[in-house]
Amino acid sequence: MSRLQKKMASLKQVGKTALIPYITAGDPTPNATVALMHLLVEKGADVIELGVPFSDPMADGPVIQKAVERALIHNVSLDDVLEYVRVFREQDAETPVVLMGYLNPIEAQGYEAFANAASSVGVDAVLTVDMPPEESKGYLEALQQVGLDRVFLVSPTTPGSRLSAVNEKGSGFVYYVSLKGVTGSKELDMEDVAQNMTRLKSKLNMPIGIGFGIKDGATAFEMANLGSAVIVGSVLVKLIEANQSKGRYDMHLAIGEKMTEFRDALNRADMNRVGALNT
Questions:
Q1: Mean pLDDT score, 167-187
Q2: pLDDT > 90 fraction of the chain, expressed in percent and rounded
Q3: Which domains, and CATH codes, for the chain?
Q4: Is the omega angle on the peptide bond into residue 28 within 30 degrees of 0, that is, cis?
Q5: Does position 224 have pLDDT exceeding 80, yes or no?
């Protein structure tokens, strides 16, 4: 069982919802990333989703697109991202790290070379937005050979055939895109999310994390009652952008406060759920 699978299983055992924050590697500067990763863990992250900068981030809204641009100004590459994880692992051997990105940089490096390099530095899973499970045989085999989990996206419009492929070829958890659109867009329809989660739970046999559109503790609380994990990204990246010129202290303070808001909300939801089960 992988580090990510162990983490998700241990959280389930104690009735706890995983908090999975996203940041873009290299944003706002290359030397900020590792410190931000440690801050996220300190403030309650159970898993870290680390974005790999790519020039055409098709699934991401303007907030994360700008973060990618800030990283690319510094020429942050896939090799750099792997180095950040290696350095992070010097102090943290427990927190799972999921790389989120696009296929082009991985293809340029080669499937086996990438998988070996990622595994060797302590990456636990990879979410490749533009690699559908039906077309991913060689890629997934390379990841599986070195024990990397394969995380796939599903959405409100994902057909049953695609869910079957995700269930067969994915591992770690499934990332549910809770709205139609890019990251950071629109408002969540809680009733719609609940209905779709019921459908997904009947089709998938692994944890489901809910992301896109979760901006505050109130929405995180609602999502904690529906999924195994809550994934937050754009709201944190927006705080990085807003505080980048103020120095590390102010940036960390703002992100720490938002992370505490999310962690407290999930803890309240977990306590309520466990209390209801015990009555």
A1: 77
A2: 83
A3: 3-269 (3.20.20.70)
A4: yes
A5: yes
Q: Which of 27-36, 46-55, 98-107, 188-197 has the lowest mean pLDDT?
A: 188-197
Separation of alpha carbons 257 and 277, rounded Å: 30
| Amino acid making up residue 266 | L
Tokens encoding 195: 């209905």
Q: pTM of the predicted model, to two decimals?
A: 0.94
Active site residues: 49, 60
